[in-house]
Amino acid sequence: MARSTDSAPRKHKVTVIGSGNWGTTVAKLVAENTREHPDVFEEDVQMWVYEENVTIPADSPHRAAAGDQPLKLTEVINKYHENVKYLPKVPLPPNVVANPSLLDAVRDSSILIFNLPHEFIGNICKQIKGHILPFARGISCIKGVTVTEDKVELICEYIGETLGIYCGALSGANIANEIANELWCETTIAYNVPPCDSRGENGESGVNGEHYRDARGAISKTQLAPVPQEYPPVDHDVLHKLFNRPYFTVSMVSDVVGVSLAGALKNIVALACGFIEGHGWNMTAKTAVMRRGMLETIQFCQEFFPETVDEMTFWESAGWSDMIVSCTSARNWRYSKMAVERGVSLQEIERTELNGQKLQGISTTKEVMSFLKARGVQDKYPLFKAVEGIVDGTFEVKEIPVLFRQQ
Ligand SMILES: NC(=O)c1ccc[n+]([C@@H]2O[C@H](COP(=O)([O-])OP(=O)(O)OC[C@H]3O[C@@H](n4cnc5c(N)ncnc54)[C@H](O)[C@@H]3O)[C@@H](O)[C@H]2O)c1
Ligand SMILES: O=P(O)(O)OC[C@H](O)CO
């Protein structure tokens, strides 16, 4: 139903939920853009921080002023404009506002950017449900899936269904430290503008309580509140303004399923590549694993999300580019290689070497395999199955080629 157009224009308030290596990087680039587009966005970007005490590292320029006492991470970020724990040595714009209160950080925000390890998203959604604007829109930068009983769900679907909002996905060949240091790369954002957000002739937004087609093309149970006409529409143009930087080239697409699944499943393949390299094999073996991994990824998309994945997505940054970068220079690859070289478990490496950062491949492997096993189709995914076996200590890296010889 059309509504009157005489209300004062509003700007989008943006909150980043999460402040790890990638969460802080995305808060930085988004805050640069909110400053550049004051007509569309409020300048300050809230960044929810999982509060913890940190000691400023001895080699930090802030150490002399701050001393060696433990300090609250939010206070350090707001005072020194640096996330000394998760993104050290990268200056943050002062309009990134670290907030330890989740409910305060999301209050009145019309754009919510979800960016934290996927194992924490359930608890976050539980806490903010009912405390966000009903017409808020989300972008998930999280690479993972949620598996409940016999169902695999995209993180953005889970967020959308739980909070009653629409949520798209951002994923690409993105190493946080490189982007934070403004080294150029590309990314992919998948977003289907819900029909209720399409603007009429006078800029009027759509019908309250309208259903929309979800990532799989089905009519969602969620009744969406349209973004009020006082706000700029949340569409590809506005999202491009929010995320695109000279060093971060954004492609906007509509294939939310393909972008989300490619981002999640490549972490399993990255573990395999690290194991392979730790064992002493090199690029030729790794490219074989990447190829096999991509085939299993596409097979998974086609088997469980039929008719929704656009194969062109695999040629986007979220597809092959992310597969390559993850298997050659990202954390899941680096630390799985280290685990094999040192002869210790991946969980042990995560505990001792990552300073609080998470390897998403460990949980994603377990979740995806539990889903495949529940359906009795695990043997159709030999690489994923092998990675689970290596993580659990029941399969040896040297057996990987044997798997494929048997096919
Ligand atoms: N780091 C990268 O280069 C990169 C790039 C692209 C995508 N991603 C994806 O981004 C997502 C976020 O990863 P990241 O690299 O920012 O995180 P990270 O691994 O660097 O940091 C872990 C984060 O989890 C938080 N945390 C710990 N316990 C928590 C709890 N109980 N509840 C809530 N938060 C808790 C920590 O405070 C910290 O912010 C992941 O899905 C990852 O796959 C990462
Ligand atoms: O460091 P990782 O392994 O979590 O991967 C980071 C990004 O997903 C690479 O695109």
Automatic annotation (TrEMBL):
Keyword NAD: yes
Residue positions binding substrate: 143, 331-332
GO BP field: carbohydrate metabolic process; glycerol-3-phosphate catabolic process
EC assignment: 1.1.1.8
Active site residues per record: 266
GO terms, molecular function: glycerol-3-phosphate dehydrogenase (NAD+) activity; NAD binding
GO cellular component, one term: cytosol
Every Glycerol-3-phosphate dehydrogenase NAD-dependent C-terminal domain range: 255-400
Binding site for NAD(+): 18-23, 120, 176, 331, 358, 360
All residue ranges annotated as the Glycerol-3-phosphate dehydrogenase NAD-dependent N-terminal domain in the record: 13-192
Key words of the record: NAD, Oxidoreductase
Family per similarity comment: Belongs to the NAD-dependent glycerol-3-phosphate dehydrogenase family.
Protein name, per record: Glycerol-3-phosphate dehydrogenase [NAD(+)]
